[in-house]
Amino acid sequence: MAELLNSDLWVEQYGDMLYRYTLVRVKDPDDAEEIVQVTLLAALQAKDSFQGRSTEKSWLFGILKHKILDHFRDLKKHRTYELASEDGPDPLENAYLHNGQWANAPKNWDTDPHKAAENSQLVEALSMCLDKLSEKFRNIFVLKEIEGLASEEICKEMEIQPTNLWVILHRARNQLRKCLETSHWNTRK
Predict the structure, then answer these.
(1) Percent of the chain beyond pLDDT 70?
(2) So what's the pLDDT on residue 186?
(3) How does the average pLDDT of the chain come out, rounded?
(4) Domain 113-188 falls in which CATH fold?
(5) What SS3 class is residue 102?
(6) What is the distance between the alpha carbons of residues 6 and 26, in angstroms, rounded to a whole number?
(7) Which residues partner with 102 through β-bridges?
(8) CATH number of the 7-78 domain
(9) How many whole angstroms separate alpha carbon 31 and alpha carbon 5?
(10) Are 60 and 43 in contact (CB under 8 A)?
(11) Do 90 and 171 contact (CB within 8 A), yes or no?
(12) Where do the H-state alpha helices sit in 27-161?
């Protein structure tokens, strides 16, 4: 097993993938670089315990995901996630009528989600729109929708109530929808 784990090749083979994956999740290039370095150090320290039940790449990404969660835990120690924040009022606060219907319904994109996921222009637009979210909205959205963490785990890690989580996710999704509808991607497709 030791021959498979050649730590000298990790940076060359997986460094860029690990970095890009991390950067999408944490947004800050310096933080992303540090998380990847910590991941590689942890993998180096644990390489003797690698049992080969997964590929080396999967093993490294598993460690990386835990390090990203550690990063968000550390952020939580220094920040609060209250609904009333510097973000100001929710721009979609009046987007609904009294009966719960949309005041202005979202556009029908007539797009196959599987094909859209392969569209590089959409990926670029989504990345740009994610960058426009506040840090708390972005972090929670990424944990739920990109990382696929369970709601209970996010609430525990971020020390928020489930109702706060759903309000934050709702607002983040609405802001992303509004941003994507006005992006160049939506007008070019």
Answers:
(1) 70
(2) 58
(3) 77
(4) Arc Repressor Mutant, subunit A (1.10.10)
(5) strand
(6) 28
(7) 96
(8) 1.10.1740.10
(9) 26
(10) yes
(11) yes
(12) 29-46, 56-78, 113-117, 120-132, 135-141, 151-158
Rounded distance, CA 3 to CA 161, Å? 47
Coarse DSSP helix, strand, coil percentages of the chain, rounded to the nearest 5 percent: 70, 0, 30
| Alpha-carbon dihedral 169, 170, 171, 172, rounded to 10 degrees | 40
pLDDT tens digits, one per residue of 100-154? 666 776 666 566 665 655 567 777 888 888 888 888 888 888 888 888 888 998 8
Domain ranges for the chain, please list them. Answer: 7-78, 113-188
* Cβ pair 18, 65 in contact under 8 A: no
pLDDT in tens, 167-186: 899 888 888 888 888 876 55
**Tokens 């996710």 identify what position?**
169
C-alpha–C-alpha distance, residues 172 and 109, integer Å: 19
Q: How far apart are CA 189 and CA 184, in angstroms?
A: 9
Phi/psi for 102 (5° steps) reads -65, 135
Question: Is there a contact between 32 and 26 (Cβ–Cβ < 8 Å)?
Answer: yes
What token pair was written down for 42? 């942890």
pLDDT tens string 25-54:
888 889 999 999 999 888 888 887 877 788
**20: its two tokens:** 């890009």
pTM: 0.50
Distance of CA 53 to the CA centre of its chain: 27
In this structure, the number of other CB atoms found within 10 A of the CB of residue 119 comes to: 16
